[in-house]
Amino acid sequence: MADKNYQVFQEVYDLLFDKSLYPAWADFCQEALDRYLPGQDHYRLLDVACGDGEFALEMLDRGFDVRGYDLSEDMVARAQTRLAEAGYKDRIYQGNMLEDQAETGYDLLTLFCDSLCYLEGPEELSRCFLAQAKALKAGGLFIFDIHSAYQMNQVYPGYQYIEEWDDAVFTWRSEQVRGEGTIDHLLNIFVEDPETGYYERHEELHREQIFPVSCYQDLLKQAGFGDVQVSADFSFEAPGPESQRLFFTCVKEG
Asked: What is the pTM of this model?
Protein backbone atom coordinates (compact mmCIF):
# COMPACT_ATOMS: atom_id res chain seq x y z
CA MET A 1 0.00 0.00 0.00
CA ALA A 2 2.90 2.40 0.72
CA ASP A 3 4.16 2.23 -2.87
CA LYS A 4 0.66 2.73 -4.22
CA ASN A 5 0.14 5.69 -1.89
CA TYR A 6 3.38 7.22 -3.14
CA GLN A 7 2.33 6.94 -6.78
CA VAL A 8 -1.08 8.48 -6.10
CA PHE A 9 0.19 11.34 -3.94
CA GLN A 10 3.06 12.16 -6.30
CA GLU A 11 0.61 12.73 -9.13
CA VAL A 12 -1.36 15.11 -6.93
CA TYR A 13 1.77 16.96 -5.78
CA ASP A 14 2.74 17.48 -9.41
CA LEU A 15 -0.67 19.01 -10.09
CA LEU A 16 -0.85 21.25 -7.02
CA PHE A 17 2.74 22.31 -6.28
CA ASP A 18 3.54 25.92 -7.13
CA LYS A 19 6.13 25.56 -9.92
CA SER A 20 7.10 29.24 -9.63
CA LEU A 21 9.00 28.38 -6.43
CA TYR A 22 11.79 26.64 -8.36
CA PRO A 23 13.01 29.72 -10.27
CA ALA A 24 12.47 31.79 -7.11
CA TRP A 25 14.82 29.50 -5.15
CA ALA A 26 17.27 29.59 -8.06
CA ASP A 27 17.23 33.40 -8.20
CA PHE A 28 17.86 33.57 -4.45
CA CYS A 29 20.86 31.24 -4.80
CA GLN A 30 22.30 33.26 -7.66
CA GLU A 31 22.03 36.49 -5.69
CA ALA A 32 23.67 34.83 -2.68
CA LEU A 33 26.55 33.62 -4.84
CA ASP A 34 26.93 37.09 -6.34
CA ARG A 35 27.20 38.45 -2.80
CA TYR A 36 29.46 35.84 -1.22
CA LEU A 37 31.31 34.06 -4.07
CA PRO A 38 31.45 36.60 -6.91
CA GLY A 39 33.49 36.19 -10.05
CA GLN A 40 33.35 32.42 -10.46
CA ASP A 41 32.35 31.09 -13.87
CA HIS A 42 31.60 27.59 -12.58
CA TYR A 43 29.74 26.45 -9.46
CA ARG A 44 29.39 22.95 -8.01
CA LEU A 45 26.03 22.48 -6.31
CA LEU A 46 24.73 19.68 -4.11
CA ASP A 47 20.94 19.70 -3.70
CA VAL A 48 20.09 17.97 -0.41
CA ALA A 49 16.67 16.26 -0.17
CA CYS A 50 16.27 16.91 -3.89
CA GLY A 51 12.83 15.33 -4.20
CA ASP A 52 11.73 14.74 -7.77
CA GLY A 53 14.63 16.75 -9.23
CA GLU A 54 12.75 19.86 -10.38
CA PHE A 55 15.09 22.29 -8.62
CA ALA A 56 18.18 20.36 -9.71
CA LEU A 57 16.95 20.58 -13.30
CA GLU A 58 16.36 24.32 -12.93
CA MET A 59 19.95 24.82 -11.79
CA LEU A 60 21.42 22.49 -14.42
CA ASP A 61 19.65 24.50 -17.11
CA ARG A 62 21.27 27.62 -15.64
CA GLY A 63 24.74 26.13 -16.10
CA PHE A 64 25.46 24.79 -12.62
CA ASP A 65 27.29 21.49 -12.10
CA VAL A 66 24.63 19.78 -9.99
CA ARG A 67 24.41 16.63 -7.93
CA GLY A 68 21.48 15.76 -5.69
CA TYR A 69 20.31 13.13 -3.28
CA ASP A 70 17.16 12.12 -1.44
CA LEU A 71 16.29 9.61 1.25
CA SER A 72 13.34 8.24 -0.73
CA GLU A 73 14.20 5.56 -3.27
CA ASP A 74 11.04 6.43 -5.21
CA MET A 75 11.95 10.11 -5.36
CA VAL A 76 15.48 9.27 -6.52
CA ALA A 77 14.10 7.13 -9.34
CA ARG A 78 11.71 9.88 -10.36
CA ALA A 79 14.45 12.53 -10.29
CA GLN A 80 16.85 10.35 -12.27
CA THR A 81 14.21 9.86 -14.96
CA ARG A 82 13.35 13.56 -15.07
CA LEU A 83 16.98 14.62 -15.48
CA ALA A 84 17.83 11.86 -17.95
CA GLU A 85 14.94 12.93 -20.18
CA ALA A 86 16.46 16.42 -20.18
CA GLY A 87 19.89 15.05 -21.12
CA TYR A 88 21.49 14.98 -17.66
CA LYS A 89 22.58 11.54 -16.47
CA ASP A 90 24.19 10.18 -13.30
CA ARG A 91 23.34 13.25 -11.21
CA ILE A 92 21.03 11.88 -8.50
CA TYR A 93 21.63 9.25 -5.83
CA GLN A 94 20.07 8.00 -2.62
CA GLY A 95 21.42 9.54 0.57
CA ASN A 96 20.63 10.78 4.06
CA MET A 97 21.07 14.43 5.07
CA LEU A 98 22.27 13.29 8.51
CA GLU A 99 25.26 11.43 7.06
CA ASP A 100 28.53 12.46 5.42
CA GLN A 101 28.58 12.33 1.62
CA ALA A 102 31.31 10.78 -0.51
CA GLU A 103 32.02 13.90 -2.58
CA THR A 104 33.14 17.15 -0.97
CA GLY A 105 34.39 20.57 -2.02
CA TYR A 106 31.05 21.93 -3.22
CA ASP A 107 30.56 25.67 -3.68
CA LEU A 108 26.89 25.56 -2.72
CA LEU A 109 24.58 23.24 -0.80
CA THR A 110 20.81 23.77 -0.91
CA LEU A 111 18.08 22.31 1.30
CA PHE A 112 14.73 23.81 0.33
CA CYS A 113 10.99 23.30 0.58
CA ASP A 114 11.07 23.17 4.42
CA SER A 115 12.70 19.72 4.31
CA LEU A 116 14.65 20.58 7.47
CA CYS A 117 11.34 20.89 9.36
CA TYR A 118 10.97 17.10 9.24
CA LEU A 119 13.96 16.54 11.53
CA GLU A 120 12.97 15.54 15.04
CA GLY A 121 15.13 17.70 17.28
CA PRO A 122 18.33 19.70 17.85
CA GLU A 123 20.45 16.54 17.86
CA GLU A 124 19.38 15.69 14.31
CA LEU A 125 19.81 19.32 13.27
CA SER A 126 23.36 19.26 14.59
CA ARG A 127 24.16 16.05 12.69
CA CYS A 128 22.71 17.55 9.53
CA PHE A 129 24.69 20.79 9.81
CA LEU A 130 27.94 18.94 10.51
CA ALA A 131 27.41 16.74 7.44
CA GLN A 132 26.72 19.75 5.22
CA ALA A 133 29.81 21.58 6.49
CA LYS A 134 31.97 18.60 5.55
CA ALA A 135 30.59 18.58 2.00
CA LEU A 136 31.40 22.27 1.39
CA LYS A 137 34.66 23.92 0.46
CA ALA A 138 36.01 26.63 2.77
CA GLY A 139 33.99 29.77 2.09
CA GLY A 140 31.19 27.77 0.45
CA LEU A 141 27.51 28.47 1.03
CA PHE A 142 24.82 26.37 2.69
CA ILE A 143 21.34 27.78 2.02
CA PHE A 144 18.14 26.38 3.48
CA ASP A 145 14.63 27.51 4.32
CA ILE A 146 12.15 26.70 7.08
CA HIS A 147 8.65 27.76 8.01
CA SER A 148 8.46 30.85 10.21
CA ALA A 149 6.86 30.85 13.65
CA TYR A 150 4.04 32.92 12.17
CA GLN A 151 3.40 30.28 9.49
CA MET A 152 3.50 27.41 11.97
CA ASN A 153 1.50 28.98 14.79
CA GLN A 154 -0.89 31.37 13.02
CA VAL A 155 -1.38 30.31 9.39
CA TYR A 156 -1.30 26.51 9.45
CA PRO A 157 -3.43 25.56 12.49
CA GLY A 158 -6.95 24.86 11.27
CA TYR A 159 -5.97 25.19 7.60
CA GLN A 160 -8.10 23.11 5.22
CA TYR A 161 -7.94 22.61 1.48
CA ILE A 162 -10.07 20.51 -0.87
CA GLU A 163 -9.52 19.83 -4.57
CA GLU A 164 -11.93 17.80 -6.69
CA TRP A 165 -11.48 16.12 -10.07
CA ASP A 166 -13.80 13.88 -12.07
CA ASP A 167 -12.36 10.71 -10.55
CA ALA A 168 -10.62 11.87 -7.36
CA VAL A 169 -10.88 14.12 -4.32
CA PHE A 170 -7.91 15.52 -2.36
CA THR A 171 -8.17 16.91 1.19
CA TRP A 172 -5.53 18.60 3.33
CA ARG A 173 -6.06 19.49 6.98
CA SER A 174 -3.41 20.98 9.27
CA GLU A 175 -3.62 20.62 13.05
CA GLN A 176 -1.40 21.84 15.87
CA VAL A 177 -1.75 19.06 18.42
CA ARG A 178 1.84 18.88 19.71
CA GLY A 179 2.25 22.49 20.84
CA GLU A 180 3.67 25.68 19.36
CA GLY A 181 6.27 25.29 16.66
CA THR A 182 4.77 22.01 15.44
CA ILE A 183 2.19 21.11 12.82
CA ASP A 184 0.64 17.88 11.54
CA HIS A 185 -0.60 17.83 7.94
CA LEU A 186 -3.25 15.17 7.31
CA LEU A 187 -3.55 14.41 3.58
CA ASN A 188 -6.19 12.19 2.00
CA ILE A 189 -6.90 11.23 -1.59
CA PHE A 190 -10.04 9.38 -2.60
CA VAL A 191 -9.63 7.76 -6.03
CA GLU A 192 -12.54 6.25 -7.93
CA ASP A 193 -12.25 2.65 -9.09
CA PRO A 194 -13.52 2.78 -12.71
CA GLU A 195 -14.82 -0.79 -12.50
CA THR A 196 -16.82 -0.56 -9.27
CA GLY A 197 -17.45 3.17 -8.92
CA TYR A 198 -16.29 3.01 -5.30
CA TYR A 199 -13.60 5.34 -3.97
CA GLU A 200 -10.37 4.05 -2.46
CA ARG A 201 -8.77 6.14 0.28
CA HIS A 202 -5.03 6.89 0.43
CA GLU A 203 -3.64 8.87 3.35
CA GLU A 204 -0.39 10.46 4.53
CA LEU A 205 0.64 12.23 7.72
CA HIS A 206 3.37 14.88 7.54
CA ARG A 207 4.77 16.02 10.91
CA GLU A 208 6.86 19.19 10.95
CA GLN A 209 8.44 21.31 13.66
CA ILE A 210 10.64 24.36 14.01
CA PHE A 211 12.89 25.70 16.76
CA PRO A 212 13.92 29.22 17.81
CA VAL A 213 16.10 30.98 15.25
CA SER A 214 18.85 31.19 17.88
CA CYS A 215 18.90 27.37 18.06
CA TYR A 216 19.69 27.11 14.34
CA GLN A 217 22.28 29.87 14.59
CA ASP A 218 24.07 28.26 17.53
CA LEU A 219 24.15 24.80 15.94
CA LEU A 220 25.36 26.21 12.62
CA LYS A 221 28.23 28.02 14.31
CA GLN A 222 29.15 24.86 16.21
CA ALA A 223 29.23 23.03 12.87
CA GLY A 224 31.71 25.51 11.40
CA PHE A 225 29.59 28.19 9.75
CA GLY A 226 31.02 31.56 10.75
CA ASP A 227 28.61 33.91 8.98
CA VAL A 228 24.90 33.06 9.26
CA GLN A 229 22.40 35.49 7.75
CA VAL A 230 18.65 35.09 8.27
CA SER A 231 16.21 36.67 5.83
CA ALA A 232 12.63 36.12 4.72
CA ASP A 233 10.41 35.22 1.80
CA PHE A 234 12.96 34.93 -1.05
CA SER A 235 14.62 38.22 -0.17
CA PHE A 236 17.66 39.31 1.80
CA GLU A 237 15.52 41.52 4.03
CA ALA A 238 15.23 40.79 7.74
CA PRO A 239 12.17 38.75 8.78
CA GLY A 240 9.08 40.63 9.89
CA PRO A 241 6.23 39.58 12.21
CA GLU A 242 4.25 38.05 9.33
CA SER A 243 7.08 36.56 7.27
CA GLN A 244 6.14 33.05 6.18
CA ARG A 245 9.42 31.46 5.07
CA LEU A 246 12.84 32.04 6.65
CA PHE A 247 16.05 31.70 4.63
CA PHE A 248 19.41 30.90 6.22
CA THR A 249 22.50 31.79 4.17
CA CYS A 250 25.51 30.22 5.88
CA VAL A 251 29.19 30.61 5.01
CA LYS A 252 31.61 27.84 5.96
CA GLU A 253 34.66 29.04 7.84
CA GLY A 254 38.09 28.45 6.44
From this structure: 0.94
